[in-house]
Amino acid sequence: MERLKTGIELTEKIEVIKFFLASTLATGGMPVYATPVLVGHMEQVSQHLAAQYLNKGQNTVGTEVCVKHLKAAKLGEVISITSKLTKIEDRTLHFEIYALNQQEEVIGTSSHTRFVIEEDRFKAKLL
Hints:
Blueprint lengths: L8 E7 L6 H4 L9 H17 L6 E12 L8 E12 L2 E9 L5 E13 H8 L1
Antiparallel strand pairs: 1-3, 2-5, 3-4, 4-5
């Protein structure tokens, strides 16, 4: 965890497939990129970013998400999601995230918090 530094970022590209549509997930009737999927992808990119810098046996869990879904994306569009680590407070990590469509228009923004855990201790508490 000592290798984590504010300012690091990661961008991942995601193609909008049928499974990601609001009409498929029953979260809305329209064939557009569903907000819950956008949230999940934003969390995923943040987790991937943090994982690159954690010690073996460490991971992160999401604790807070505040999202604005600003623009629709259609089936087949490729979305770029960038997560940036903006603040570290002990084991709490704060991220700012944005998603762009192929025209480089912002379709969503988010602030997100993740907590660094020791995987074995965390799993033991679940039993």
